[in-house]
Amino acid sequence: MKRIGVFAKLSNPDAITVAGEVNAWLQSRGVEVLLEKTLAERMSLSGYPGGSIPAMVNLVVVLGGDGTLISVARQVGDLPVPILGVNLGSLGFLTEITLAELYPALERVLSGEFSVSNRMMLDAVVRRGQQEIVRYRVLNDIVINKGALARIIDMEAWVDNAYLTTFKADGLIIASPTGSTAYNLAAGGPIIDPGLHCFVVSPICPHMLTNRPIIVSDEAIVRIEVKFQGQEVAITADGQVGMPLQGGDVVEVRKARNGTLLVKSPTKDYFEVLRTKLRWGER
């Protein structure tokens, strides 16, 4: 590892402090460190735009939580650059490595003794007539949701060329296996092992109780046409970016060409993280 990029949760002073310590630790071992620009400015150092760093490094270190990692994963995009996520608070679903494990984990990475989990990402495009309006790459989910005062939305759903149903609901979640433990779980959807080749379509507060989440192959293309008039409806990507929709807009979601490579914790497996986060077995 000759070059490592470092990102941090800027609203967390501890993350900025740890970033400075990581920077010094890596440089003392002959590693060139590329700090995200705003983070570097907080440290009175020079940095690089976040979107340009992944193409210049062998590894990205993210200091913060799952939300910070998800944001960085979108910037990494198709590049086969592993992400080492360090959670500075409670254990995260994605940021498995704790602060106490940070430097031993970095030692293993520098010596090449680490493994990664390849997490599927989703590509989503919004079409309005023949025009492509916007395109998103997400690690967790795409969500179509109504505004606070809007009525139930009709969402006509197709899987490839087969009509699925018209959901009448407050919204719809299309989640990857990684995203199955996020909004999908809160909406009553299933937990999906991140190694499985599928994604899930989950209605939010459906009008018909028989409208249940459905898992589809990762080779499928899910197409949703939203049908409404005079309502506030929006699409959000990973809960972080999005835009308003218009009646008749079509949202297409499919598996992305490449996934996100997450450096695995050597001390915790996926099911231990799941047990801990969801407090299974506690009384």
- End-to-end Cα distance, whole Å, is 45 Å
> Largest beta sheet: what is the strand line-up?
8-7-18-15-10-11
CATH superfamily of the largest domain: Probable inorganic polyphosphate/atp-NAD kinase, domain 1
- CATH architectural grouping of the largest domain: 3-Layer(aba) Sandwich
Helix content: 10-25%
β-sheet strand percentage: 35-45%
Uncertain residue ranges: none
Helices, by number, come to: 6
The computed structural class is: alpha+beta
Give Rg in angstroms: 20 Å
Written description of the protein model:
- The chain has 2 domains: 3-119 and 259-278, Rossmann fold (3-Layer(aba) Sandwich), CATH 3.40.50.10330; 122-255, Tumour Suppressor Smad4 (Sandwich), CATH 2.60.200.
- 19% of the residues lie in helices and 37% in strands.
- It has helices at 13-27, 37-42, 66-76, 102-110, 183-186, 270-278; strands spanning 3-8, 32-35, 59-64, 83-87, 97-98, 116-119, 122-128, 131-138, 141-146, 153-159, 162-169, 171-175, 198-204, 214-217, 222-227, 233-237, 241-244, 250-255, 260-263.
- The strands form 4 sheets. A 6-stranded antiparallel β-sheet has the order 8-7-18-15-10-11. The chain has a 6-stranded antiparallel β-sheet with strand order 14-13-12-9-16-17, with no helix packed on it.
- Strand 1, helix 1 (13-27) and strand 2 form a beta-alpha-beta unit.
- The protein starts with a strand and ends in a 5-residue tail after the last helix.
Summary tags:
283 residues; Rossmann fold; Tumour Suppressor Smad4; 2 domains; six-stranded antiparallel beta sheet
